[in-house]
Amino acid sequence: MRSKDFEVVLYEDIEYLAAIAFVTPFWSRVEVVHDIVIDSTFKTNALRFKLFAMSTNIGGVGMPLSYFLFNKRRDESRDGGSDSVRKQTLTA
Question: 53 near 40, Cβ under 8 Å?
Fold first, then answer.
């Protein structure tokens, strides 16, 4: 799925987890990355989704490379759901 150069790289909507990860247009335009920063926010929206952002610094300006939103619908999952989805996202 593509929308204005944002590409969805992961989408899960299953019993215990809802997750979406996408890369920004900067993802394909950045040739050399020296540092990557992963930042997160929690408890900032009514739907209880957690947001992770991966960015880099180019010429002194922070550039967002990708975003990952997820909501664990239950405290327990059968296969470690959110951890395995986070690992999948970082390797996508």
Answer: yes
Record the pTM.
Answer: 0.68
**Tally of domains within the chain:** 1
Give the number of C-alpha atoms closer than 13 A to the C-alpha of residue 80, restricted to the C-beta side.
6
Give tens-digit pLDDT for 46-69.
888 889 999 998 888 889 999 998
Residue written as token pair 């390797």: 91
Q: What are 47's strand-pairing partners?
A: none
Kindly report, residue by residue over 22-38, the tens digit of the pLDDT. 999 888 888 888 889 99
Q: Which structural domain, as residue segments, surrounds residue 37?
A: 2-91
Structure tokens at 50: 């957690």
Could you tell me the strand order of the sheet in which 50-58 lies?
A: 2-3, 6-14, 17-23, 61-72, 50-58, 37-41
